[in-house]
Amino acid sequence: MQIRKKDLTFLGILKIISKTAWTKFKWKVVLMLICALVVALLETLAPKIVQLIIDNLEKLASPSPLDLKLFAFLLGSLFIVGISMTIFRFWVNRISFYIATKVEDYWRYRVLYHFFQLPASWHDNHDSGEFAGKIDRGASAIWTIIHELFGNNFTVYTITLIVVLIIAFISFPLAAIILVIPIPIYIFVTYIVSKKIAKRQNYINKIHHIAAKVLYDAAGNVRSVKAFGTELREAKNHDKIWTKLHKLEYKEEELWLTQTLLQTGIETVMRIILLIVSIWQIYKGVYTIGFLVLLMSYQQLTFAPLRELNSIFTRIRRVVGRSKHLFEILSEEDPLKDSRNAITISKLKNKIIFKDVSFSYSGGFNAIKNLNTEFKKGKVIAIVGRSGAGKSTFSNLLLRFYDPDKGQILWDGIDLRNIKRYYLRKQIAYIPQETSLFNRSIGDNITYGKIDYNKKDIINAANLAAAHDFIMKTPKGYKSIIGERGIRLSGGQRQRIGIARALFTGASVVIMDESTSHLDSESELAIQQAIRKIQREKTLIVIAHRLSTIINADKIIVMDQGKIVAEGNHKKLLKSCSIYKRLYQLQVKKETTF
Ligand code: ADP
After folding, report:
1. E-state strands within 286-334
2. CA-to-CA dists, residue 487 to 159, 167, 225, 494, 528, angstroms
3. Ligand 1 centroid from CA 393, angstroms
4. pTM for the full predicted model
5. Model confidence over 48-82: pLDDT tens digits?
6. Which residues contact 139 (CB under 8 A, 6 or more apart)?
7. Pairing label, strands 555-560, 406-411
């Protein structure tokens, strides 16, 4: 089902959710409706039996055996009706619970998958904490809507209301009018109050998202919080948001109370009117006492569903806003989606060419301007330049996190835009500056992204990345859990795990965004060795911050302000490129000073 922004109105969202339930669980929905219908019929049958019992009470003064049999039958029926109602209600609830859970899972899964597929430019502008809040609250809102709509409440009560009114209009049309009068008043009151509640709820939802964002941001940076001694400030920040939230929720609760108060008022007035009319009719000998009890029960059967339907409507209105945020994520287009004729690729056979490529982030200045260069198979190419020169943008474009605004990037002559992203990323292994590791075992981190593998290959990759020895020194070797974002490892060790992971993928091109952090000399040596080993097997693109590691590169690209200012090997550039010479001299000076 395609989700478009313009479909995300109150009714549109209800339609999306109920359509999912209907298309996926048609037979279960039908079965649930049948059970609900049975409950409604039984609900109306019970007062009828009570009426018969009351109207025949006088026979108990001197009962014949037939009268006794009739009473036994009526009491037995009342018991069976009561038990059957409970059983059928249970089934309505059970089926609705099942459908609600499945539909919630379905949308949660779809949104998550879409979220991961959305382009890097989208992620740059969205907060992951806010998203986590949106998906959690949005998905549980879907559950609530389904359970309210299909479950015990809505279905049973709607059917009960219809059945009661039909029976009432057929059996006693005049009295039935009194039953119908409160319906439009109820609807009017609910419409007005629920609109106010929904408006307030939308505001509350926004604050909830801010709360999630603030919490994730602080929790994700717990080390900085500790280092700067801001634990109390962060906790207070959060507390402030929640105090505001609860104040708003308290006010919302007041609106609920107003709604209930108005409903109770309408019910009491209508009860009194029915009682006066009925007593007057009994006095005239038109109604019996049993009939009065039946009328009062039917009035109760009309009020109960009305009350429930109104509060269900308000509750649904309240949570629809939450699911809207969830569906909004789905309505985001992926501009980098594979085209229909996109093709697969295998290992790099010849070269990657950047042809007159220009690119800017979110329509700002050009991070890369008219870039022309090539990366030949099996070579080591380094990209150097000052911070902000456009080096990382280079790899972002090559990995197709973004598409160039102008020009082409060609993989063996094929424009990246015509290659299936999955296959492109299988061929390019990326080792970022800050290797992002998962809170899983070392082995799981190295094999991340691969399902079928040989255990020997893990050790092989770790050896190539000069990581095997230190892994074996950890308490559980490859099974050691490394903590959130690899916190239990040093920067150099994390980098080496990142290299092992990249090598394990079997990609033919490796992009290594060298760490700017000051690695210990052992780690640096290990990484240099790893680069040398990779060199023999793959095309290696090194975004270099420490020139010492790339002196032997086949080609060094020097960048400045988004442009290539020179290309060549170390010796040539030292002679001909002033920027390179300065970068090199600065580094040599820095390394000898410290
Ligand atoms: P380098 O890797 O050489 O330090 P980058 O390629 O990261 O440089 O950045 C080039 C320019 O693009 C910089 O001016 C930087 O501020 C900008 N930039 C980088 N990433 C983003 C982004 N995600 N959104 C907006 N601007 C960005």
Report:
1. none
2. 58, 70, 15, 9, 23
3. 6
4. 0.69
5. 899 888 888 888 788 888 888 988 999 999 999 99
6. 104, 107, 108, 111, 323, 326
7. unpaired
Tell me which residue of 468, 449, 472, 460 sits closest to 537, measured CA to CA: 460
Helix, strand or coil, per DSSP, at residue 343:
strand
Tens digit of each residue's pLDDT (9 = 90 or more) over 507-533: 889 888 876 454 566 666 776 677 666
Residue 390 Cβ < 6 Å to ligand 1: yes
Ligand 1 contact via 119 beta carbon (within 6 Å): no
- Residues 46, 48, 51: CA angle, nearest 5 degrees: 115
Nearest to 271 by CA among 164, 171, 186, 178: 178
pLDDT in tens, 209-257: 888 888 888 887 887 788 777 888 888 988 999 899 889 888 888 888 8
CB 343 within 8 A of CB 420: yes
Alpha-helix residue ranges (DSSP H) falling in 332-412: 391-398
CA 490 to each of CA 444, 478, 503, 542: distance values in angstroms, whole numbers, following the listed order:
18, 16, 20, 21
pLDDT digits (tens, 9 = 90+) for 405-434: 999 999 999 999 999 988 898 899 888 777
Q: Distance between the two ends of the chain, CA-based, in angstroms?
A: 61
**Nearest protein CA to atom 6 of ligand 1, as residue:** 390
**CB-facing half-sphere around the CA of 161: CA atoms within 13 A:** 18
Supply the DSSP symbol for 352. E
3-state class (DSSP) for residue 123: helix
Arithmetic mean of pLDDT over the chain: 85
Rg (CA), the chain: 36
Q: Report residue 508 as tokens.
A: 């033919």
Taking the C-alpha atoms of residue 117 and residue 564, their distance in angstroms, rounded to an integer, is 31
Contact status, residue 509 vs residue 427, Cβ threshold 8 Å = yes
**Each residue of 282-331: pLDDT tens digit?**
899 888 888 888 888 888 888 888 888 777 877 887 788 889 888 988 88
Residue 592 scores a pLDDT above 50: no
Q: Is the CB of 423 under 6 A from ligand 1?
A: no
Q: Please report the pLDDT score of residue 19 as a whole number.
A: 92
Judged against a pLDDT cut of 60, whether residue 40 lies above it is answered with: yes
- Separation CA 334–CA 118 (nearest Å): 5
Report the separation in Å between the CA atom of 506 and the middle of ligand 1, taken as the mean of its atom positions.
29
The torsion region of residue 486 among left (phi > 0), alpha (psi -120 to 50) and beta comes to left
pLDDT mean over 557-570: 90
Least confident among 185-194, 332-341, 471-480: 332-341
Mean pLDDT of 123-143: 83
80 contacts 45 by C-beta, under 8 angstroms: no
Q: Which distant-in-sequence residues (6+ apart) come within 8 Å of 228 by Cβ?
A: none
Atom 7 of ligand 1: nearest residue by CA position = 392
pLDDT at 108: 93
Which residues face 557 on adjacent strands? Answer: 383, 567
CB of 391 sitting under 6 A from ligand 1: yes
Between the CA of 401 and the centroid of ligand 1 the distance, in Å, is 13
